[in-house]
């Protein structure tokens, strides 16, 4: 059967049109390699970001470790240097401050003995210039006491990370009649220099005052408005002047210290732990048994009629 060419042409046209339509409607499907490629790219970017975050965390952790380590070291060092020694000192009963040194010159001004010089040994020693050690032995053995005024220099040293001196005052241990034995007047003796921190032992409750030569200052206790702070190893020098007119005194100095949250007392005494001693002058020169004047390093006993002795009522000869 023969097909009409025109019909065959129409059929081809229809077929072609349907084919075009099918081709247009059919979407282009990506090749199988497209999805893995994107996954690989995403995976690479993720790994890069994770590496950056890991590096950042490591850097931050290192910085924090250095900072914390430095702070910890500083805290430990401060604790070890301050708190540990304090704990050890408290456990061993070590006082918060120590008296590092005490200096007193008995023969700086006039001084006296309770008894007269009567032994041949002492008379021979006084008749000639004596060596320093021999002279100091005489003063200690005969218990020489300054007359009227004495100056003491004490060095205090801190034994805690912090210690505060809030008060100091003389403590009278013994009160006796004024010495009336031998009286010694050094050649250079004049008015003994006055130190601002002064205490009058004749008062009922002696305290330290700022002695400026004014009567109104006498009632103002120095430590009512002053304190002394000391840290471990720090030193301070205290220059103190003591006066007496009506009696002879044995005394020491009580130091009230705040340390470790508690109030404690430290005692200042002369060398060897001995108390300080001072005597008031006699009311008249005849109140002494003997008077010695210094002459070219030796001590010459003065005749009774030539005695010139500052007394409680007359400070000048």
UniProtKB/TrEMBL annotation:
Keywords: Membrane, Transmembrane, Transmembrane helix
Region of interest (Disordered), ranges: 1-51
Compositionally skewed regions (Low complexity) per UniProt: 13-37
Transmembrane segment boundaries: 58-80
Biased composition, class Basic and acidic residues, residue ranges: 1-12
Protein name as catalogued: Uncharacterized protein
